[in-house]
Structure formats: C-alpha cells, structure tokens
Write a structure and sequence with these properties.
It is built from six helices and no strands.
C-alpha cells in the first residue's frame, strides 16, 4: 500500500512540476525520505495535506477520486483562515476602540470636575459682589485715616 502511496506522491510531483527534494523540504521530510521509507505515517501525510491543500488525501491513500480537490473544498479552508485573520484584526480594532473610549470617559470625568469647580468659583464671585459695598453709596468724601499730630 505505501509503495502505491509513494507512487501517487511522485505522480503529484510530476503534476506540480516540482522535484522530490523540494517537495520533501516543503513538507518537512528529510531529503530522500520518499525513496528510503517503507511506511508513510499519518503525521507525514498530514504535513502533505497542510502544505498542499489542493491534493486529495482520499486519492493519495486509496487511489479513489480525483488527485486534485475541487476548488470549493480548497476555498472553504482558505475562507476559514481568512475569517480567523479578520476576527483577530477586528478584536485588535475593538481593543483599540475600547482603550480610546476609556480615555474619552476619563477626559469627560475630568472636564465635569473642572466644570463644577468653575461653577463654585462663579457662585463665590457672585456672592462676594453682593456683599461688596457700592462705591456710589458710600459717604463722600471718602474717609481717610488722619494722623493726629499733637503740638507741644
């Protein structure tokens, strides 16, 4: 069976027009692995599937079906990874927006405190004005301190 799998791998390499060494390097196998192994393990086949998603594992293992998957099958995996990437970007943007929101809320809080302080100061100034004596109503001429000089 594995010899047949190895032959199918070689057929796939011919289809892609790539060398066996380049293929082995891309999937993380040692140089000459295909020629020197008796059994191709499931984890080795998984590395092939990860690097070459267009290759049908059903065809590679059993010989049934087409060598190359339909585009629809490939598109789902690609779309899934694209959605994951978009989700991560959206989370990052959301985190940035949340941080900005917190900054704005802190600025608003500080502005409210400053506004209250200014309102208190205005009320204090109004109160001081009411208690101040109107110069027009004060006696004329204004009273001055007079030094009393005594003569000897």
């Amino acid at each position: 069976m594995d010899k047949i799998v190895k032959e199918r791998i070689k057929e796939f390499l011919e289809y892609l027009n790539i060398g066996q060494n380049a293929f082995e390097a891309k999937v993380g196998w040692s140089n000459g692995y295909i020629n020197n192994t008796k059994n191709i393990s499931a984890d080795k086949l998984k590395s092939v599937a990860n690097e070459y998603p267009q290759l049908s594992l059903e065809w590679l293992i059993t010989g049934n079906g087409e060598m190359i998957k339909r585009e629809v099958d490939i598109d789902y995996k690609e779309k899934y990874y694209n959605l994951l990437e978009e989700q991560n970007e959206t989370r990052s943007e959301l985190n940035s927006l949340n941080a900005r929101h917190i900054d704005i809320m802190n600025e608003l809080h500080d502005a409210k405190i400053q506004n209250l302080e200014l309102m208190k100061e205005i009320e204090q100034l109004k109160s001081n004005k009411r208690h101040a004596v109107d110069p027009a109503l004060s006696s004329y001429p204004p009273q001055r301190d007079v030094d009393i000089v005594t003569k000897k």
